[in-house]
Specification:
Helix content: 25-40%
Number of helices: 6
Shape: globular
Distance between the termini: 39 Å
Mean pLDDT: 94
Length: 195
Amino acid sequence: MAQQLEIEFKNLLTKQQYEHLLQEFNISENAIHRQTNHYFDTPSQAIRKLQSGLRIRQIDKYYECTLKEKSAEHAHLETTDEITAEQANKMLVGEGFYAKEVAKRLALFHIPLENLEVFGSLTTDRVEIPYRDGLLVFDHSFYLQCDDYEVEYESKDAIKGNAIFDEFLQKYGIEKRSADKKIARFMQALQMNKE
């Protein structure tokens, strides 16, 4: 189990900006890794109401379950348990919950594990690059007939990270376009599909 404070800055990109950044940073095809997030909540959206998100992430044969809790504007407390493929598959069909530390956090908010259900999945092609004491991330995500592109910068310091990210956007001529978390964008698309 790992628990960490994640400080990140995000900005939506156009397809052209995304492709330009891949060229600028000489990103080869094999540097792009695919991951899929499977999102959970209760029918009453108890986790969403806490401004939090619960997911199982699959990267190749690696699986982890993470609860992200909002703690400040650009910061989230993440509680993560590594799980096996078998445990992940059981959780996805509602046959138990095997992320022990995540379960403890959910219990603090009185969220019954038996009420959790998967409400959707989102796949991302991701590139991660060390950049100025942090991590630069280029993402192409696809879900519910949507394609979107974003750049993220993860930092250990909110003030320095914000300044570095602003400089990065200016350097590459990228206008500021606020980006909700992937789970929020997924929920908006899901809502639009229902209407």
